[in-house]
## 1
Amino acid sequence: MPSKLNIYNSLSRKKEEFQPLNPPFVGMYVCGPTVYSDAHLGNLRTFTSFDIVYRYLKYLGYKVRYVRNITDVGHLVDDADEGEDKIGKQAKLEKVEPMEIVQRYTNGFHDMMSQFNCLNPDIEPTATGHIVEQIETIQKIIDNGWAYEVNGSIYFDVKKYSEKHHYGKLSGRNIDEILEGTRTLDGQDEKKNSVDFALWKKASPEHLMRWDSPWGVGFPGWHLECSVMSTKYLGETFDIHGGGLDLKFPHHECEIAQSVGADGNEPVKYWMHTNMLTVNGTKMSKSLGNSFLPHELVNGDHPLLEKGYSPMTVRFFMLQSHYASTLDFTNEALSAAEKGYKRLMKAFKEVQSLEFGVGEVSNEINDLIIKLCKKCTEDLNDDFNTALVLANLFELSNKVNAFANNQLPISSVSRETFDLLQKTFKDFIEDILGLKADEDKGGDGKLDATLSLLIELRKKAREEKDFATSDQIRDQLATAGILLKDSKEGTTWEIK
Ligand code: AMP
Ligand code: ZN
């Protein structure tokens, strides 16, 4: 493969050169949403980060199989082993079938993913579609001596496992620390140790989602589905496993134990974790009541928002930080992102319409443009640093503006450099970062084209000192709900 890509591996806690197990094939698994409510923008951040990983690996020429699951059973409230199933609870509340809840929020999740231009995974398996495989894996773990049965439930014996293996290797803890940190058994608990986790739970009579198993009627534990579906579609050991940082422990730690317990193999070569989207400093989460839904963001219909923002502005906002840093969601940050995004897209449009002309090449400008274009690749190769890629594209945008405004002759660069500049904008903005022009409400770019013409006519009128016409254009558009904004970079428009 052409480039040397480095990925920060949460397991080794360092950047490692990416070497797929079976090039050019790459297997990538990302923990998907639990579909009992609308996905929020925190979830979107994680999925957007992996969208970049997927897009870039494909761009580099790898044949990627991207698997992202849908959790539709087994995820209990409080992420623990006791309590109601999140989906079952919502179904009872609304007096509908659990599968109606699953379908509604899966549809909503897909709509959100396409609105924010995230590519579909190659396989999107569901936990309920893999009950047979989950039962088989539990049986293997029991046969290998790592799990035990109590009253129709099966638990993974973490204490026994940790005598031979390092449970806690991913989150950097040892078993004694974990034991101290977990709740002590209260006499009611049927587990041998509080660190043990459920592979299968006996269903109480009121539990809606239930299946037959060799241990009676029940349902699978939450951690199991990901071990089973990732290895089913990607092999017992595969390249990349991702998810949000909050899944590192216990979810991913349990996945490692389950795979080692069932197959004797470490399941994953590179573990990747995205950091959290915060709102004024606090993690965005549904239970904290500070989560934003996509439509609230687009309409500005949320107490914490001053106005609405387009999906592409939000995508741009997310890409402005490295996936491993926290990202804080504020009005100021979004409004700065809106300006930045428009500036970048304007330069993208300009660079596409520039025509090359031969003349005297300026080595200084030529070399600078080559350097910045190369840096885009280097920065993505350095653990997918989209923040630095955008910074390079902005520096390049300054030069593009100068070409477009005739402040700098286009002949300052060679033909090759000019082609490289156009290609870099196209490849990085569209293919890798997945940014596209905001959809306008007139459809098919017709409104955009009409307004560009009106802006041009107004500019001409002003140059000719025909202020009556220029004001008429501005005022009549304002009456129709379209605001023209003048700045040093030119005139932009926005729907009020
Ligand atoms: P869930 O549907 O809650 O299981 O979460 C789906 C994915 O979104 C998981 O990978 C979570 O780690 C991730 N996630 C949840 N909240 C946030 C947040 N505030 N910021 C970034 N990722 C999040
Ligand atoms: Zn998972």
Note: Residues 226 and 266 are 14 Å apart (CA to CA).
## 2
Amino acid sequence: MTTHPASLGSPASRAPRRPAPREQLGLRDVLGAGVLVGCAIDGGLPAALRPVERKLLCHHFNALTPENLLKPGNAQPTEGRFNLRDADATVAFARANNLAVIGHCLMWHQQCPDWFFKNGGAAASRDLLLARMEKHIDTVVGRYRGMIHGWDVFNEAIAEPGDYLRDTPFTQIAGPDVIADAFRMAHAADPDAELYYNDFNIEVPDKRERTLRLLRELLDAGVRVDAVGIQGHWLLDRVPFDDLEAAIEAFHALGLKVMITELDLDVVERPDCGADVAVHHDYSVADDVYRQGCPDEVLRRQAEQYAKLFDLIRRHADKVARVSFWGLHDGRSWLNYWPGERTNHPLLFDRDCRPKIAYDAVARMLESHGPKRPA
Ligand code: XIL
């Protein structure tokens, strides 16, 4: 697991002075009962949280995604040795505080240890890989049976770019059916847990079509899939609102719920809109443009775009079952260290856990419409 204490630093804030806050409504209250609102947090809870962070989490959110703890690389770093102590504490804390736990993630070509795909010096056989998947899924999902609301069963299986599926050790060894196999294993381990397919850029037409194909194939094969997770690692001024709306409608038309699972709005330029964790850029100190704080004008654009995004979500509250931010506040965002080290300001709360004007814009817009509940 990666923790990045350096990113928790508190650069002098140039944030616009806000009026003294009135009673601050929780995001979960303004969003309405039909849509869960969550965030990802790294490390074991509550130990990893400062008191002010714990308060922020419990006031605004009703869902929690352990950011790294449940990934195969952390959950089973060497074969047969499961490392779930921090995850146990986090799940217990979340349940005690009415936070639905999202299990992220069972199978992913990233943050998955090499041993999964090897047999000595050679590649594992198909049978060996499937047996390891079953053991991993059965152990992890089984351990939290009845405690985890839903699992990201397969993460990022669609190629970018490519004809259809991403070429990974999973597909190389076990073929395209490996995705359906993982869903079946997860369902057997906890028949009541929701099961999700999660990926980035799948709102964009070309990747959306290939995702629809995968989902259709899974559903036709009789596999349980409850929802599709659109990660939502977007860039300021480049939020694909129209593509997102079309994607929500298209995924919902298959009979699936839609979730925005890893939302953040990057304010520092980066070369591409992807979220491939293998990508790395070296940023110089000069590129760390918002080290001393984020300019008002940028924060205002971010506020407008967040409000527009939540207005879209509000209008589709009958289709969107959850929105989760990838981080609790700006100081805890992975965008401070991916795709390279820089100071980022992508979320609704600043490093001191104060709501930013983006929070105000979202809350005001949602309040003006009243919470929308699905029919
Ligand atoms: C990221 C975490 O936030 C980082 O702490 C870690 O170093 C790398 O992974 N898509 C996903 C998430 O599905 O699991 C990734 O999380 C971000 C991109």
Note: Residues 2, 42, 67-68, 155, 231, 262, 275, 277, 334 surround XIL (CB under 6 Å).
